């Protein structure tokens, strides 16, 4: 198959999943064409089956904002025409599926299928902004196929948008051959020279991730357990988080690493992963941590309970319940036998989302849509 893959290239779960999916499909012999305004962060190294097409936008005095949706649609038309694309796979309904719809109309009678994967933000946050509702609903209904990364996200989409269209649940995945615990003695000696426990969090530091809660949880934990906090990623809340660390006078116990492309060696040094998010459609960073045998303490929102099994692979609590999450963390960090059991269970759970298994589901879904003569809902 020849697949045009469009995603946000930035540090975030949807871009990671799209890129890893494209790479895995390329290894299986499919021709993958990434169409985006920048090279996806995890698209590193050469592959003969992967080609990147940059979407260029121009700024004109007449327009206050770059016309990315239109530029993307035009680039999609170009790539489909010259590369004989079979499927345009769009990660996020807006603007990617919207651009794909425009491209399909411009291609006129040209046979092309559009598949939209919903990752969450476009539905749970942006999607609930009234001004976007008609566009998102239309883009989803006009797609030839729609997938969601969790049962929670599928139900939320159907409920909030009144959509009767079939939505296939294909969860996020992890390469368990790459994401596995490795010897981390060197990393641990740098971060925890006195054998302190290491708590970790990775995200794009947006308000929805509640990174300040991560710091407050750690603040309570370190009062009872000698520990360090490692924060991976960057975003709009980073400065606030750095300020909070100084206010709590724990800055010497917290390390901000910024964005990191390769994190297996970092996760392998962690004793516990914190994810107190306000909204998570799946929780890819938690899955990657679990694959590296790291138990997770998370909120009970969205798709997280479908991944993190309470009192088995970690613990879940309500949004903002810093005290309870801190107690859960202390419980695990002070009980070696329990921590070992949870760590092993986290790894076993992660193998259920093995890349080979999930990529095969995508392949089957692609073929199903290509073989169908479905007419999008109007």
Features of this protein?
378 residues; alpha/beta; Rossmann fold; seven-stranded parallel sheet; six-stranded parallel sheet; 43% helix; elongated
Order of helices and strands: EHEEHEHEHHEHEHEHEHEHEHEHEHHH
Q: Judging by the overall fold, what is the CATH architecture of the largest domain?
A: 3-Layer(aba) Sandwich
Main β-sheet description: 7 strands, parallel
Radius of gyration (Å): 21 Å
Quickly give the structural class.
Answer: alpha/beta
Q: Work out the strand percent.
A: 15-25%
* Unreliable segments of 5+ consecutive residues: none
Widest beta sheet: strand line-up: 3-2-1-4-5-6-7
* CATH H level, superfamily name of the largest domain: Glycogen Phosphorylase B
The fold-level CATH name of the largest domain is Rossmann fold
First-to-last CA distance = 28 Å
Shape: elongated
